[in-house]
Fold this protein.
Amino acid sequence: MAVDEGLAGQGSQPGAGEGARTGRRNRVRPDGEFVADPGRGLFWGNRGSLLGAAGQPTRKPSTRAWVCCVLEFKGWRRVQWQPGRLTELYFLDEATALAAGHRPCGLCRVPDYRRFQRSWVNALGGGLPGAPEMDGRLEADRRTPKGCQRTFRAAVGDLPDGAFVRLDGETGLVRQGRWLPWSMAGYGAARAVAPDLRVDVLTPAVTVQLLAAGYAPVLHPSAG
């Protein structure tokens, strides 16, 4: 099956901390917003070309193929912040990227992309989906018509490991029945949460289904 990644496969291994050095916001939070931060995180990805006024990333993407890529692939290197080209974004880990609405790249992360496809089938049925089908469903589940992150309510006990939720105004990861507060540098100490507590879920609904069906995202070492 051909994999159509659009601009996703043009290279990787960008420089760490580029956004913070230039004052540009290219680190992505689980709620999908961009901030400037000196850390690079474990993954990078893109939403197409995002450069807007003053060279800052905008919320409006130029593609529905929001991907999550490895930092190194075949020794390729990119020159960042090129007008009209894809805008490099960085994530603490894969769970953060999934919460923001991204999926594994089908070029630099073929095994993970295939796992994502198989989990899709396990969760939703049918044959192996292509990238356009997955991107269309992800687009519907990750954003409102106004371009804001789409969330939903659920009980903590009903959520799989790897889902992101908002608890008492803070964002964190659900793992093994506990909640780990998130930051740009990593996760804080796990907290016990009542399984029947209802929370706002940031990870797109379809991605939560895939997590429940067995897709295990790469987590930052601070998650334990």
In short: The CA atoms of residues 143 and 149 lie 5 Å apart. The mean pLDDT is 87. Residues 110-124 form the longest helix (15 residues). The chain has two domains: 18-142, 152-217.
